[in-house]
Each structure stands twice: as structure tokens, then as C-alpha cells.
Design a protein that fits this description.
Elements (H helix, E strand, L loop, with lengths): L12 E7 L6 H14 L4 E7 L5 H7 L3 E3 L6 H11 L4 E4 L11 H9 L4 E11 L6 H19 L11 E4 H7 L8 H11 L4 E8 L10 H15 L1 H26 L7 H30 L8 H5 L2 H31 L8 H27 L9
Parallel strand pairs: 1-2, 1-4, 2-3, 5-7
Antiparallel strand pairs: 4-6, 5-6
Helix pairs in contact: 5-8, 7-8, 9-10, 10-13, 12-13
Amino acid sequence: MIPSSIPGSPVDISVVLPALDEERAIADCIRKIQTVFHDNAINGEIIVSDSSTDKTGSIAQSLGAIVIKPEKSGYGNAYLAGLHHARGRVIILGDSDNTYDFSQIPRLLAPLDNGADFVIGSRFKGTILPTAMTPLHRYIGNPLLTWMINVIFGTQYSDTHSGFRAITREALDRLALNTGGMEFASEMLVMAAKEQLKVVEVPIDYYPRLTPSKLHSFADGWRHIRFVLLMKPLPFVAVPGLLFLLIGALLMGFFFFEGNVESSHLHTFILGAILVMGGLQVILTGFLMKTYSVVHGYENKAGIIVSLMQYSNLEKFLVLGSGLFIVGVLLGINIVIQWFSVSFGFLSEISTAIVALVLITSGIQVFLFAVFQSMMLLNENNGHA
């Protein structure tokens, strides 16, 4: 057995491996890493963050690795626990299922020696061996999620979900990572972009796994999408909502004031009403997502959200919502009065009824937005007791 590190000496490299029932693969991973340490005169340590119910932990410990037990389950939580114990000036991250060839660690270290902060092993720039990645992940899932991150954050990654990475300790400390699930992989790249780290990709090989996959394609994919949208909710949620609202308002206004609503244009008028109500809901949801992101430290408190996080402005939203609701109710009451005036006979007030519906629904949406927004700000210091 090759020792992982020399006791009492500064650690050059920490390799952190999350593990969940990998007793068939963990030994090969550790031996490859130890060989790299030996052949390159590296004083390194191997930390296995073990959530297993099999012999993974005992095998790793017998080979000289440091084994810790995360308090919480989840891919991200396993990494966070392992990173907390890492002492190296450089951190290597990799899966413990032997899909990554740890003898290729020097490929990840070379760019760091040339000034890079963060290195990603790209499977799509390297070689993906047959059966190593399912067609769903290779041709749809990974490319789609990579495209989303690149478009939203202006990056140029080729493989945002590679689990083989290297980062300097100084750069890692700047990222302030905290997600506990599979979205940890996306969070790391998003925060690297926000912190303007110098990121380099290098080609790596990707091998078939020895143990059953722990991935849940659609559930884990949704976690990544949810996190990415949380980081940029306004341009990709609120702005489309605003577009829908404006188109809907134009459609409603044009046909209402032209007096063509009661004719063949009624369906277009109803479509406009749907776009107005739906667009408003999407806008308000984007604002709530932005507030959640700020409150939980994912984004900085800046721009329009500063105004929306002030209680005085939230009170104005309460008044606005109440006002819209009341106007809608009054329009509805007026329709009932007119119906009464014709002795409950034929009444053609469909357009007015639709406008009343839009006002009432929009008023409720705005009012509840202000209520929920204020609830999220209970722990915020806004100058109120």
C-alpha cells in the first residue's frame, strides 16, 4: 500500500471522492490515485465521503484513505463534507465508481500550474467509451443542460456535468458552495463564472461503471434546471412573462376599444385575457424566485429587487392588488345590475365580464405576491422592528 500523505507535512493535493455503495470500484480508484502521488512525488491525501451501506468505507480505510461520514445524504452534501476536511492547496474531485481514470490527474494539474483556477475534465472533448453514457444523457440531457448554462451565464463549457475536476483552494473558497443534491455540479460552474475564475477544460476518457448508476435522469435533471433558473430568474422567467402580458394587453385593448369583441374577435379577446393573467403570474413568480435567491445568498441584492424587498413598496403592492380586485368586483356588480334592469333577459356584456375577471384575478395575484414576498423577508433587516 502506498501511503496517501506524509503525516505532519503540508498537503499538496486532496482528492475528494463521494461514495455510495461502491465496494467493487473504490479500491481501483484509490490505487490509481496513490500511483499518481508516488510517480509525481506528490504529498497528497484521499478523502472518501462515504454514505454507503456496504464495505466501501472499510475498503477505503484499509488502503490508507481518510473516510468520513456525511451527516446528510445527497451528492452535494457528500462533497461539502469531504471538502471541509480537505487540506490540500489543490482539490481534485471525482466519482468513486471508476468511470474516470484517475491516472489522468496530471492532465488536470497542468493548467493549474499555468495560472488556471479551475480545470474541468471534458468527456465530450475526450473519449466516451461504448456503454459508458446512455444515449439520453449523451445526446439530450448533458448537451441541453450545458447549453442552458452557457446561454444564461455567457460561458463556453462543453461538459458541465463532468465529475472529474481540479480547483485551487483559494478559488474554491471564493465559490461559497452550499447545495446538497446533484445540482452541486451546476452550482460550482455557475459560481465560477460569477467569480470570473480562469476555467480550462481538458479532454479525458470516460469508462463504463462497475456498479449500478445512482442517477435519476429526470429528477436530477430537474434539480439542475431549477438551480440554473434560480440563479437568473428575471431574464428567463420575468421577461418572457412581461412579453406575454404586453401582447395580451394589446390584444384586449385593440378589440375592446374597436368594439369588435362581441363578434368573431371574441376568441382573440379571450386569448389576450389569458396572456395578461398568465404573463402577470410568470412575472411575479420571477420576482419571488429572485428574492429567494437573494435571501439564500445565491445572488447579490441589486437592481429592481432592491425596491421589491422594501416593505414600503410591498405595501403599495397590497394597495394595488386590492384596488384591481375592487374595480373588477364593481364591474361585475354593474353587469348584474344591468341584467336585473332587463328582467334577467338577454344581456351582451361578455367583454366587460372578461375584463372584470382579469382585474379580479390580477388583483388577487398581486395581493398574494406582496404577502408571500413579505413573508420571505421576515428575517431581512429593512429598517423595521
